[in-house]
Amino acid sequence: MLTVAVLISGAGSNLRALLEAANEPDYPARIVVVGADREADGLAHAEAFGIPWFFVPYAEYPDREAWGEALRDQLAVWQPDLIVLSGLMRLLPASVLEPWAPRIINTHPAYLPEFPGAHGVRDAIAAGTTQTGASVIVVDAGVDTGPILAQERIAVLPGDDEESLHERIKPVERRLLIDVVRRIATGDLDLSSP
Ligand code: GRF
């Protein structure tokens, strides 16, 4: 059974979908802990499913490395097989990447390498493009530059704003994420050679 830690910063709707999938008896992975870089609303989903949670408040650390070391120490308690970033709005420092890479994956609301970074949906709207997408990637030291594990195109509709487009992207992200975690758990997907 693959053990998974999920890291969030926000509402955690994608986390919720993964919690529901992992709650199914035939799903080959289970979430053992949920962490956040702040007291994120999404931690309530972990509470609802009886999953341990923690947060390491970024603002209380002098720099990214120190925050990363505290995050690493929390994750080390659970020793997850896989770390899923699902709305974590932080770049992971080397102190977290080194112990777990490449067993860290991230969902991104764009068709990478298009529109990387913290505002992928806003950037797609601003670019006036007719299509964007959702992607699941391996996390590396760059900004959304890791190997792509799954992605799917999503149309940008006339009149879309950032919120309406993002709410249409998220269900696709959730479906891709649930499938990628399943494939990793069954050995169908090897993160060392994706
Ligand atoms: C997701 O679209 C994720 O890809 C992006 O932020 C969003 C998080 O949404 N980084 P939620 O917190 O899961 O609702």
Describe what this molecule looks like in 3D.
The structure is a single chain. Helix 3 packs parallel to helix 4 (94-100). The longest helix is centred in the C-terminal third of the chain and has 24 residues, at 162-185. The chain has six helices and seven strands. Strands 3-2-1-4-5-6-7 form a seven-stranded mixed sheet, with helices on both faces. It has a single domain, classed as 3-Layer(aba) Sandwich (Rossmann fold). 36% of the residues lie in helices and 22% in strands. By secondary structure, the chain is an alpha/beta fold. The site of 5-O-phosphono-beta-D-ribofuranosylamine has 15 residues, from helix 1, strand 5 and helix 6.
| Head-to-tail CA distance between termini | 20 Å
Query: How much of the polypeptide forms β-strand, as a percent range?
Result: 15-25%
What integer value in Å does the Rg equal?
16 Å
Strand order of the largest sheet: 3-2-1-4-5-6-7
Structural class: alpha/beta
Total count of domains: 1
Ligands bound, unique = 5-O-phosphono-beta-D-ribofuranosylamine
Return residue spans where pLDDT drops below 50 for at least 5 consecutive residues.
Answer: none
Number of helices: 6
Share of helix among residues? 25-40%
Mean pLDDT: 97
Shape: globular
So what's the CATH class?
Alpha Beta
The name of the CATH topology is Rossmann fold
* Count of individual beta strands: 7
CATH superfamily: Formyl transferase, N-terminal domain
Name the CATH architecture: 3-Layer(aba) Sandwich
- How would you spell out the order of helices and strands? EHEHEHEHEHEEH
